[in-house]
User: Which sequence fits this backbone?
């Protein structure tokens, strides 16, 4: 259409907003890379003698949590989704701190 209106959901002139799209993909990739690297390194440190079982457990937990969110989130409000995400994140932080304490105790007793 003439007149410079927005077409196709992009910026003016019908062109997509490429810098914003690329920035979002780059940030998501950086965040995922940091998560994947630190999670795998932590599992490798915590389970040096049984890595295969530890990584299998990680894949299973990720799959189950994704499936639960996929089926539950469509029926939840945005506030309930946010509360669920905050609760799971808080539980993950507490669980990591507890696992770290147990790992340090195990190393102290092994000496």
Assistant:
């Amino acid at each position: 259409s003439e007149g410079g209106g927005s077409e196709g959901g992009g910026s003016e002139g019908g062109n997509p907003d490429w810098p914003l799209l690329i920035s979002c993909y780059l940030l998501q990739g950086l965040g995922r890379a940091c998560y994947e690297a630190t999670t795998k390194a932590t599992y490798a440190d915590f389970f040096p003698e049984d890595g295969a079982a530890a990584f299998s457990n990680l894949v299973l937990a990720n799959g189950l949590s994704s499936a639960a969110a996929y089926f539950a989130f469509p029926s939840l409000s945005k506030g309930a989704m946010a509360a669920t995400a905050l609760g799971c994140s808080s539980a993950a932080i507490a669980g990591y701190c507890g696992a770290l304490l147990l790992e340090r105790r195990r190393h102290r007793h092994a000496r």
